[in-house]
Amino acid sequence: MLFRVDPASSVPLGDQIAGSVRGAIADGTVNPGDRLPAARALADSLGVNVHTVLRGYQRLREEGLIELRRGRGAVVVPGPVSPGRAKILERVRELVDEARELGMSEEELMSMVRLGMTTT
Amino acid sequence: MNQARIRLATVTVAPFALALGVQLAVLLVVGDRLPDSLATHFDLSGDSDRDPMSRTAALVASVLLFAGVGALWVVSALGSPLTARALKWLTAGGWALGGLLGYTLTATLLANLDATDSSAVRLPPWQLAVGAAVALAAAGVGLLLTRFVPNPGHEPTGDDGTTRIDLAEGELAGWSRRTGSGPLLAVGLATLTAGVFVAVAVSWRYGPMVFVIGLLALVFASAHVSVDRHGLTVRMGALSWPRVRVPLKDIEAASSRRINAVAEYGGWGYRIRHKRTGVVMRSGEAIVVRRANGREFAVTVADSATAAALLNTLVDRRKRG
User: Fold this and answer.
1) How far is CA B141 from the centre of its chain?
2) Which helix (H) or strand (E) is B110 found in, with range?
3) CA angle B179–B182–B184, rounded 5-degree value
């Protein structure tokens, strides 16, 4: 899996790492059940702080894409839904970014999404 | 055209060239004993059943036939990316066809030797059976030869070390992936168990030895491959040790290609050959790095094209300073 982070970007480095993993799960480069590199190894690889990597992994755990287990490290949640979930999360990112650009509030966006879910 | 493609073209066209060569040689040696018109078509009882063909027309027809079939085969082999398996059968099929045509056409020529009446020339049907046997043998030869041909269809770019990843100035990038070998894992576990068994049931002296061999197989059954600012790093087994690293400064170019474990490395595991070293878990795609000292280092891993492109990008960046 390819990790890319750009220190010049306004997006926090941890989120950029999370984004790399999300993209890899979405496009099938990484499969459910695969192990991510150890946080320390990845930090050394990229030349970033290990806490930065851990923040990214934590984010992915909150999104339900990976499991963090003591001794086993970070594992992509097994099961067939993970790639689809990652794709949706990527779209959510885009959605949120676009809404922010338009100066939309969280409540406004949420109500739009809620409305979208009732009309199917 | 790179070397792999030249080799593939040679192997696919060889049976037809060979068959034609045999025919021409026969013509050269015994051509003066052949009548001006040849019987070229026979029924199942072996009797000639069509009007005879002139000697020149028969020669032209067979040159055209072999050139046509040969071209067809080369185009099929090189024109589209085929799987290694498909390529194998395509080559074997070509050799079988070459063998069959070569044998039957040469037999036809020989049947016409010293014939005064072309309608009396016979080609008994058992000749066809011999032809089939020759075809089978030729197919075997073709299959053997495919072992020496790397599959060019899977070289993503066809040329070496030119793929890049579009990295912004100052952007950090790393690639990482696990690779492993199911068979090697199974062999390792089996040897480990055998070691215990030997120690308990046979001899305390040899048991530990077998056990250690099993342990070694397990160490080399999986690896963690990474590409980053340090270079290409392979960490073996669950312990991440031993570790092999090719630093960026030693890398000239990286590419992704399919390698054949047996043909190129003589087996699986950590392989050292003349001019190349490899961590070979299986036959299949691999990152192949050309080192500054002229040696090659390869590691079999999925998504190797991305890894090779990143390596090339990082090497460029390092050279730029």
Assistant:
1) 13
2) helix B84-111
3) 95
**Contact: A2, B310; criterion CB under 8 Å:** yes
In CATH, A13-118 is 1.10.10.10? yes
Interface check A24 vs B, CB under 8 A: no
Residue the block writes with tokens 């068959």? B19
Average pLDDT, chain B: 84
Nearest CB among A2, A37, A47 relative to B229 is that of A47
Maximal CA-CA distance, chain A = 48
Contact between B295 and B273 under an 8 Å Cβ cutoff? The reply is no
**In angstroms, what separates the C-alpha of A48 from chain B's closest C-alpha?**
9
Chain A touched by B249 (CB under 8 Å):
no
Report the residue of chain B nearest A28, measured CA to CA: B303
Q: Identify from B167, B171, B172, B239 which residue to disrupt to test chain A contact, counting A C-beta atoms within 10 A and taking the largest count.
A: B172
Least CB-CB distance to A1: which of B171, B176, B229? B176
DSSP string across B53-102: EEHHHHHHHHHHHHHHHHHHHHHHHHHS---HHHHHHHHHHHHHHHHHHH
In this structure, the strands spanning B276-280 and B284-291 are unpaired
A66-69 vs B296-300, strand pairing mode:
unpaired
Asked if the C-beta of A2 comes within 8 angstroms of chain B's C-beta atoms, the answer is yes
> Strand B296-300 vs strand B276-280: parallel, antiparallel, or unpaired?
parallel
Domain boundaries, chain B: 3-154, 156-181+221-321, 182-220
Percent of chain B exceeding pLDDT 70 equals 94
Class of domain B156-181+221-321: mainly beta
**What's the ipTM?**
0.86
pLDDT given at position B151: 56
**Mind listing the pLDDT tens digit for each residue in B116-146?**
777 778 888 888 888 889 999 998 998 888 8
CA dist B297 and B276 (Å) reads 6
Rounded to 10 deg, the angle between the A82-101 and A13-26 helix axes is 130
- Per-residue burial over B197-216, b if 16 or more Cβ lie within 10 Å, else e, is ebbeeeeeeebeebbebbee
